[in-house]
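OP here, attaching both records as promised.
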Amino acid sequence: MPASDSDPRPSASHTKSSSRAVALHVLLEVERRHVFADEAFQQLTKNSPLSTVDRGLAFDLVFGVLRHRGHLDWRLHALTKKSLSGLPTIIVMILRLGAYQLLYLDRIPDSAAVNECVKLAKRVKGRDWSGVVNGVLRNLTRQADPPWPDPTEDPVQALSIRYSCPPWLTQRWIDRFGFDRAEEICRQSNSIPPLTLRTNALRASRHKLKERLQAEGYSVTETVVSPLGLTLGKCGTLTTLTALQEGWCYVEDEAAQLVPFLLDVQPGHRVLDACAAPGGKATNLASLMKDQGEILAVDRSAQRLQALQENIVRLGITCIHPVVGSWSEGWATASPLRAFCEKGLDRILVDAPCSGLGVVRRHPEAKWQKSVDQFPDHQRFQGEILHQVSTYLRPGGVLVYSACSAEPEETTEVITQFCLAHPEFRHEEVVTWLPSGAKALTTPEGDLMTLGSPYDMDGFFAARLQKV
């Protein structure tokens, strides 16, 4: 990075600008290290002196900039004398922070938004960029909103700018689904997701959880498709949600809640969750099994498995055994993993690492970090995992492959290639095992696909394979 990209640290003495400084710091971490924005935010604010209000503003700024980056850059580009790509990264981020406040946050006066961004620019080492930031943002306050690009002239640009979706991804969705459905998918991918809970049936029924939450003053709605889900209105921080802390529920999108149903697990089954952390699907499987049987939860990240272990304890589950292991190199050296698999498995879940393009509304940074060039590597790794784990499935056993993506390279093509190489597996239609409300969410091939559904859920794919 250029010298002028040095990172301005948030200062406790800057009570008015600390929210912007923290947001800028997080955005730079995301840009430099390609980390999840929520994880970077938690890491950088865990010892912060920010008040609850300022912390909320900082969070809003981070995710607002990432969610609307395409539109912000379009507006800023018209006001800069040279391309944004010619400016230091830190100045671009400051301009985006200012533009987001000016265009999307009515509660912040324009003058305050501009002045606080100018202060941030003055703290950047090297050249003084405060004049540039001040000039661009003040011109933005004076500029009338330009008309959106005409979709009849350039449909890709029109959707990319209106919904801040990268042009390469917009083009793919238009080619696959047509303009109208692509627009709906772009709109959904840029929306703010709901807070959805999955009931922990080991502790309570959905009805009982709903009654408790309502008695505590929360606005609660039952999910339409998943029989386990509840959607909450504004509820403050999750640390105040006592039902969550006491293990009555788990935060999980409605689409993700559907995948474990496809395995049709039964009490006493031996199950492998091959890519388990942080444990949403593994803990759902344990609940469906009534905590009777064995689930080996494997992940290559010890840190993420720690989160799984904490969830197991909180939810009161005893049948899940976390193991650190990799399916690419040296997995057999993890003796608990190998010993468990060699005894034979009744069910296997491969919730494969992927682009995550089905969950970009939760991780908007992913839109700007991914490219079509990454798909071949993803596909090879996904296929390798399937090949390795499939050996240990007993005849009659079931393997479910899922991904938080709808891109063919990471979904249907993986299944097609696997079935060609493994004729002992039968590709089954999932409709039999889905909850009744989800039966419309299937593809002509019989797989689960939630991208672009009429429900407010993430984009997931899942296929069911039986070893015959």
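Record two, same layout:
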Amino acid sequence: MAIGGAYATGRETVEYAAQFGTMGWMSVAATFIILATFAYLVFELSRRYRTFDYRSLVKLLIGPFYWLYDLLHLMLSVTIIGVLISAAGSIMADTLGVPPWLTSAALVTTVAVVLFFGQSLMERFNSTGTILLTLGYLIFSALVLSLKGDDLVATFSNNAPPIDPAATSWTSISSGLIYGALYLCIFPAAMPVMRYAKSHKDSFWSAFNLGWLIAIPLFLTYLAVMAFYPSTAVLESDIPWLTMLSNYGTWVVVVFGILVGWTLLATAVGLVQGALNRINANLEDIGRNPMTRRTNSIAAAVTLIVAIIISQIGVIDLVAQGYTAGAWGMLIVFGLPLMTRGVWLIIKGTPHSGTATRSNAEESQTPDATGAEAGGTTKQT
């Protein structure tokens, strides 16, 4: 799910938009524009060249260096899982007083169980989580804005400045562009649907819909944070949404915990399975047999253990530093080739019906989840 991880908690919104005060809307707009642009290029290349799995597309763009995307995606996945574990620990500790280590153990165990029972259970986790979280965003935003509407109006009427006095409009815009680049990791899960596209209009509307389905929850969360701006209790919180909802009754916090907990779990499951799929695909590329079920289990356990270690850094630093580094990596490895060679291929290239090098069945076995909260919605879309 694209809307997962720190996105579901509100931490990404604070880091990449709300900290710029009333200029933060520029960040949200920039995120939508760059995400929709990247999406259109990916979808149109996929449609024209019949590349319905991400590896075929990446090979088309950067040739023999395609493995760099897999490596970067694996590192980013571990970082996102670390955010999920840290966020889940904070939520359970703040709401129910459960020790973070116990939450980590429960999350790892549940991920293992879901992976063991396979694809159908994972699909139910993702689809149910998507619906519930979307409804949750609408309810939570309406609740906050209905009670804090006057504060929101006052914030914008007073043209509230950014937290950093040196920040400019371009600072906010560039932050949104960087954040949008992070979502380059969600396209492996979205590309298979382009097998049904018949024209560039299908690519355009698919990209537009993907963009606004991510941008609207981002904008609603931004408005909710701005209703509390510049409260340090919200802006410096690991889980801004939890802080904003803390005075609205126990039932609201409980519902929030359930929805976000479900989202974090679904995202973690998808990320781990996606990492295993990438490892197996690269083993096949070098002539090795894919991992056995036992080896898969060991690899999944190692991935989760590394993520638990990384989670000790904390949600705030992981989002501010880990996500930003991942976004720059995605921009360099995938975004720039997409904006250069990708555009040239669309304008000048000759489509080839047999361009795809692998069956999409392999990629469609398990949807990836990210993100950016980064993670979780083409996965959410």
